[in-house]
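Lecture 7 notes: from sequence to structure.
We start with the chain below.
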Amino acid sequence: MPALHRPLKLALALTALALVTPVASSQSLDAPPPPEPPSAETTVWMSPYAHVSAAQTKLDQAMVQQLEWELWSDVRTSVSQGLTEVSAALAGGVDRGLCTALRTTLTAVGTRQDLLEREAFAPGNGDGLHAGDEAALSAYLDGEYAAVSTGMNDLAAELAFVEGRLAQTTWLRVEILFEQTRDDEAQAALELGLALFPRDSRLHDQARAWADVLPAAEGLLNQLQDRIDTLDLADSDFSGLALETAAQLHTAMGRRRYATQEYELAALHFDRAGRALERSRGMPRKWSGEEVDFREADALVNGAYAWLGVALAHWQNGREDETAMLAASACEESLVEAMRTIPRHEAATSAVLWLGDSLLNKGDPSGVGAIDNAQARDFYGRMARKFDNPDWWNNYALMCRDTGTSLEARGEKEQAWDLYEKSYAAYTRVVELEPRNPRYSNDAALMLLYHLDRDLDLAAELFERSWMLGEEICNNPFVEQDVWDENFSAYTDAMLNLGKLYTDQQDYDQAEEVLTKLLDLAPTRMDAMMAHRDLMTARGKRS
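Predicted C-alpha cells for the same chain:
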C-alpha cells in the first residue's frame, strides 16, 4: 500500500438526477392562443426548496462528471450552477445548515477537480519544465504530488465540519480519505454515513468498492447485520442493499483469511457471503438476478477451495483424518450448490477436478491406496449423476475399471465384474454426451474387449469410429498441436485394439491390414510391433 497517496479510484457510478421539465397546463377548447414566449429578462419563480433540489442535482452531476476524465471540462460549470442555486435557496429562507453543507460540498468538488488535474498533468508539465534533467523532474513531481495530497487532506477536514446533512458530503469525504490511505478515518466516516443514510446506494457501492482495504470490516459488517436483523423485511429497501454489501464485505474478508492460510475462517466468510446473497433475493436491490447468481456461485466456489485447504492441512495428520473428511464433504456440498446455481459454472467445474484429485492423493501421491481410489471414484460418480458432465463420467469410468482390475488380480472376480459393468455404463454415457471424441469411443470399446468379453462386434464398431474421428481431426491442417497429439494418441490406440480384436477372432487379413497401417503411422511404437508379431505367430509365420 502506498505510503502517501492512492490514485483516483472510480469507486462508484453515480446516477445523475434528471432535470425537471416544466409541464404545460391544459387549455380549454375555446381558450385564447398561448402567449408569446417571455423575453430574456423574464424570470420564472421557484420555491426555495426547488432551488435546493436543483443544487443537489448539479452536485450529483458534478460528481458523476468527475469520475470520467472525458467530462472533467463540465465539472466547474455544474459546480457554478449549483452554487447559484444554493444562493437562491438561502435567500429564500432555506435552513442555513443545509445550504452551508451544499455550498461546502460543491466547492470541495470544484477544488478537488483542480487538484485532480494538477496531479494528472504534472508529468507533462514536468517534462516541459525540466526536459533532460531527471533529478529536477523527480523533485518537481514530488512537490506537485505532495501539494495535491495536502490539498486533499485539507478538503477532508473542511467536509468534516458539515458532515451529516448530505450523503454526497460523506461519500466525497470517504473517497478522499481512502485515496490518501487514511483508511481508519475513512471507515469511521463510512460507518457514520451508512448509519445516517442507510438506503443511499452510493455509500453501499463505496463500501463494496473499498472492501479490500477496510481496516476493520467486521465493524461495518456488524453495523449492517444488526440493522438487517432488526428490520429485515420491514425495510426491504434497506435490507436488500445491505445484504449485497454484507456479501461483498464477507467475500473480501474471506480472501484475506485465505491469503493467510486461515482456511476455516475463510470458508465461513464465503459461506456467509453466499447466504446473504440468497437472502437478498426478492428484495429491492441494485444487482440483477443474474449477477446475484454469479456472485453467489463464486462465493460457494471460493468456500469450496477454502474447505479443501482445511482438508489438505489435516490430511498431513493421516489419510483418514476425520476433520479432513468432514472438510472434503463441506467442499463437495459447496460445489454442488454452486453448480445448482449456475450449472456450467467454469470455476466450479475446475474445482470438482481439484477435489477429486485431492481425495485420491491427499497431498501425497505415493501413498494412494484402495480406500483413496474408492473415495475419489465415488465422488466422481455422485457428481456425474447429479450434473451429467462427460469429464466426470469419464473419471468415474476409469477409476471403476482400475479398481476392478485390482480386485480381479486378487481373485475377487464378482466385485471386479460389477465394477467393470459400472465402468462400461459410464463410458457409454460419455460417448452419448461427447459422440465425436475418439478417446471416449476407444475406452468404451476396450471395456468390452479386455474386461467384459462380450458384444465384440459393437466393440469393433466403436474402435473404427474412434479411428475415423481421430484421423479426421488430425487431417485438419489448422488443428493445434496439443489437440493433434491427443487425438493421434486416441485413434492409434483404437487401431491397436482393433488389430488385437481381429487377431483374437482369427480374422488375420483384417488384423494385418490394420496393424500395418498403424506401424506406418507409428513405426517405433513397441506395443504395435508386439501385436504384429503376435499376429504373425497366430498365422503360423515369423516376422
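Points to note: The two ends are 73 Å apart (CA to CA). DSSP finds 21 helices and no strands in the chain.
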